[in-house]
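Inverse folding, one chain.
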């Protein structure tokens, strides 16, 4: 059983990291108590924990307690070497080459042993880098680590070892990547090889090719899709921005840094809103077992000077996330190893490529150690993150998301009307995600979902998503069901409350529909209140999520009527101890205008949303609460 989620703010932790940490400094870090010394101690503890699992020549790290990935045992061992080497590189480069624990010798030995006979079957032999193979990923981590530690490791190697290692890495320049963030791995390898004078023409060509490839996936406003389609997730931060900006920074390429640094700075204005007051990052997308790697772009902005965040806010967000996971058992209490999971082990966040060492891409979180100890990001007092300052509802047009945060409980909620990747359902296709809940695992009845029920009781999936826009307190999308039915979905958000509107056309009259809410434990609490066309039904069977062993999902149901049917429900996810009744926060009415339907939601403070539904689309009007002595304003967004 996973540990209880703990408080929703930085308070007394549910567990303690399995390695010593320095005393807290609440004067410098009033929010988390953590300083640079805590980051250094955490890096040292994580690296010490993996030491016993290296092969005798230190080329492979075979970590226990996890299922193998589909790439196999040897590739998983290389992953253990490369990802922990990256962590060691941040630690050593940030200390100016100081290496009291002998990490450089460990990884130099492994490099020599692993490249002696690549592709062989000896106990130390590294697998070759081939098309779309996992070693291509690990080559990027290895190359970046070598580049960061070059004065103290690479430049002191025997020439024969350097040549062997460069030859192994050079295969990454021509290996075919998957069409996603993998395009950036040859960029990273190429940057290192060009800097050291190996295969320079091929290295530069690979660099330019990869950077050109991701241009087609830039959606604007600082957001990329992770390849074709609309797969928006944390790969924006720990890959799509990270590798180009680091390459520009390490190469002193002002032109490249201007382009990609500007995008990073724009992205961070949104990205900072994805962290709850307890340090939890938003739980959405794939590869979530990388955990605190979510903090990498925060540090990257500070490292390059391309950030809208103050130094104190940057450290507060990053330290809050590192502490959040270490205080909740992410590094196992017995071994100190990062488990395949979220807090403790949990298979629901894993993919087929996840192996025992995969969680060590969390090493990217330690990018901040490259900033010197006297940098303001380490010396300025912590400042609160966005979720702590005030309630906010923020539209993100590029991914077509709506972010909703409340300062009373520190929760962040994401309403998803634009991100989809059916390969990794359910972490992409749900209507909503948060910093304190996880989706029900594959095979379970879906939470945060609206669908039509078939004769066998199966609920229709949500795929083929078409964004319809996001604006002042709203977001909308539509998708098809079967060959004739279409669902238009709109969410309205205000404070901690939501109104969910779903219009169904093209379904036979009498078709049953079901809407589900958040999958949550006792805290935070999940609520649904039917407002039109729906009635309350028993909740879904309890399931285990990344946050709790017994999450309960409320549900409501209805049936379609004539040509068009509209269903309206209020919803809320809250950790407030005594919240106002949900029914007191909003009123809704539905008006039939013949060819169109209008849903009006009136919030308690006088704010109003009107949703005009017609011809399979939606138009939303937002009227803010009137200022004292003034008539209501009006903003119309389509």
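Residues assigned per position:
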């Amino acid at each position: 059983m996973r540990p209880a989620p703990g408080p929703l703010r930085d308070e007394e932790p549910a567990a303690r990291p399995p390695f010593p940490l320095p005393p807290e400094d609440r004067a410098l870090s009033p929010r988390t108590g953590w300083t640079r010394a805590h980051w250094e101690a955490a890096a040292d503890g994580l690296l010490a924990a993996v030491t016993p699992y290296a092969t005798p020549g230190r080329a492979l790290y075979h970590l226990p307690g996890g299922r193998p990935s589909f790439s196999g045992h040897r590739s998983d061992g290389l992953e253990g070497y490369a990802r922990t080497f990256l962590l060691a590189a941040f630690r050593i480069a940030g200390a100016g080459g100081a290496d009291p624990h002998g990490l450089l010798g460990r990884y130099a030995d492994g490099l020599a042993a692993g490249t002696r006979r690549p592709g062989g079957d000896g106990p130390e032999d590294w697998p070759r880098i081939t098309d779309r193979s996992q070693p291509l990923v690990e080559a990027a981590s290895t190359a970046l680590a070598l580049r960061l530690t070059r004065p103290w490791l690479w430049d002191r190697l025997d020439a024969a070892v350097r040549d062997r290692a460069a030859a192994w890495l050079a295969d990454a320049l021509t290996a075919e990547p998957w069409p996603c963030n993998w395009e950036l791995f040859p960029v990273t390898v190429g940057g290192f090889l060009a800097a050291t004078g190996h295969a320079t023409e091929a290295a530069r060509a690979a660099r330019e090719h990869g950077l050109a490839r991701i241009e087609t996936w830039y959606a604007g406003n600082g957001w990329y899709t992770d390849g074709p389609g609309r797969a928006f997730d944390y790969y924006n931060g720990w890959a799509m921005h990270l590798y180009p900006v680091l390459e520009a920074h390490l190469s002193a390429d002002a032109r490249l840094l201007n382009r990609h640094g500007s995008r990073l700075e724009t992205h961070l204005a949104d990205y900072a809103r994805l962290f709850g007051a307890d340090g939890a990052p938003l739980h959405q997308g794939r590869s979530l077992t990388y955990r605190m790697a979510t903090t990498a772009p925060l540090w990257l902005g500070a490292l390059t000077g391309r950030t809208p965040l103050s130094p104190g806010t940057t450290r507060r967000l990053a330290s809050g996330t590192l502490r959040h996971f270490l205080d909740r058992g992410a590094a196992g209490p017995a071994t100190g190893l990062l488990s395949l999971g979220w807090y403790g082990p949990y298979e629901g966040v894993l993919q087929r490529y996840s192996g025992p060492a995969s969680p060590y891409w969390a090493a990217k979180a330690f990018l901040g150690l490259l900033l010197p100890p006297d940098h303001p990001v380490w010396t300025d007092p912590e400042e609160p993150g966005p979720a702590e300052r005030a309630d906010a509802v923020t539209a993100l047009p590029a991914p077509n998301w709506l972010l909703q945060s409340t300062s009373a409980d520190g929760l962040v909620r994401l309403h998803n009307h634009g991100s989809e990747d059916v390969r990794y359902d359910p972490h992409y296709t749900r209507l909503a995600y948060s910093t304190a809940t996880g989706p029900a695992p594959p095979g379970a009845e879906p939470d945060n979902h609206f669908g039509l029920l078939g004769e066998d009781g199966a609920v229709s999936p949500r795929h083929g998503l078409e964004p319809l826009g996001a604006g002042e307190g709203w977001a909308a999308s539509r998708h098809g069901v079967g060959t004739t039915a279409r669902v238009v979905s709109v969410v309205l958000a205000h404070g901690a409350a939501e109104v969910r509107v779903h219009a169904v056309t093209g379904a036979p009259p009498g078709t049953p529909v079901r809407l589900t809410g958040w999958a949550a434990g006792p805290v935070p609490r999940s609520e649904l209140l039917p407002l039109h066309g729906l009635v309350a039904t028993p909740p879904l069977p309890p399931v285990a999520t990344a946050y709790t062993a017994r999450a309960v999902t409320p549900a409501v149901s209805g049936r379609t009527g004539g040509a068009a049917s509209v269903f309206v429900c209020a919803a809320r996810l809250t950790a407030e101890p005594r919240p106002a009744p949900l029914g007191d926060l909003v009123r809704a009415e539905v008006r039939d205008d013949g060819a169109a339907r209008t849903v009006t939601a009136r919030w308690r403070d006088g704010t109003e949303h009107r949703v005009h539904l017609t011809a399979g689309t939606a138009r939303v009007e937002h009227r803010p609460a009137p200022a004292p002595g003034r008539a209501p304003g009006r903003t119309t967004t389509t």
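Residues 73-94 form the longest helix (22 residues). The chain has 13 helices and 21 strands.
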